[in-house]
Design goal:
By secondary structure, the chain is mainly α. It is built from 17 helices and no strands. 57% of the residues lie in helices and 0% in strands. Helix 13 crosses helix 14.
């Protein structure tokens, strides 16, 4: 089929005119500044309201809530994060308790056999690999870092089993370096793409785009806020608590906005209890 613009400008020939190609819109590049939605601040404020009660699993069982102080805190933080991949926070917390009872220090883990360590962490996902990573990481900490958890991004990612997300979380939680970078997990990657805060295919791409525009004063808390929302949406028991909390808000317009936001990022209106529908001012009744 001939391009109508070319057909009007040139005489007809037996040979068809060449098709005019239109340039495709280039996808967002991870290291380029990303233009966020104009309402991103309102959305973040609403997410913070949704998380006011701080009762997601990550709040009581995550690396931020170890309850350990002193010289071993940084090592405990590192180990908790190494155990957390593909594992629920509840299981990580139980495993950390077993390690604490065993003795969780750099020298004690170095002296623990591979078999004994594997038995101690047997309930976490991929425990065989994690045992190997932890043992090798402890050897490197002793040999290259004077027995202390490294406080740089380069030093942390040089440890087996530690990627960018984990490294930034260790720097944030254990060293107070809140502007070093944002630890982005799969919850955050999915939610930020849905919200239009990034346009990325990988968590690392999401991190780079998010850091290109999100004010640094938000970096310290964005992980805990978003991961907690993701957990409460996915786990039925916590979902029920979240629904009850939001339905208790006196500001019904804001409660409805919260419900719509949760619906948008993965919790449909059908997740709201039927009992709420009987109330004329309930969230579900407004959604219907």
């Amino acid at each position: 089929r001939r391009n109508p613009v070319l057909a009007a400008a040139t005489p007809s020939t037996d040979r068809p005119a060449k098709k005019v190609r239109t340039a495709k819109k280039a996808p967002a590049v991870a290291n380029e500044p990303f233009q966020p939605p104009a309402d991103w601040r309102d959305t973040l404020d609403l997410l913070n309201d949704i998380r006011r009660e701080r009762n997601a699993p990550v709040d009581s069982m995550g690396a931020e809530s170890l309850g350990v102080e002193g010289e071993h805190f940084r090592f405990h933080t590192l180990i908790a994060l190494m155990l957390s991949s593909q594992t629920k926070d509840q299981v990580v917390a139980e495993t950390m308790q077993r390690l604490h009872e065993h003795s969780l220090t750099v020298p004690s883990i170095a002296a623990t056999s591979h078999e004994d360590l594997n038995a101690l962490i047997r309930k976490v996902g991929f425990h065989n690999n994690k045992t190997k990573y932890i043992k090798n990481a402890v050897d490197i900490i002793i040999e290259k870092h004077d027995g202390k958890v490294p406080g740089t991004f380069e030093g942390l990612v040089g440890l087996p089993g530690v990627g960018p997300k984990m490294a930034y979380l260790v720097l944030n939680i254990a060293f107070g370096k809140t502007d070093a970078g944002i630890g982005v997990d799969t919850h955050m990657h999915r939610i930020f793409n849905v919200l239009g805060w990034v346009r990325s295919t990988t968590p690392e791409g999401t991190r780079k785009q998010l850091q290109s525009w999100l004010p640094k004063e938000e970096w310290a808390t964005i992980n805990l806020t978003t991961v907690g929302v993701g957990q409460m949406i996915q786990q039925p028991a916590h979902r029920a608590k979240l629904v009850a909390f939001i339905d208790s808000w006196r500001d019904r317009d804001r409660a409805l906005r919260a419900a719509r936001l949760l619906d948008r990022i993965g919790m449909p209106a059908s997740a709201w209890p039927v009992s709420l529908a009987a109330q004329s001012t309930s969230v579900k009744a407004e959604l219907i």
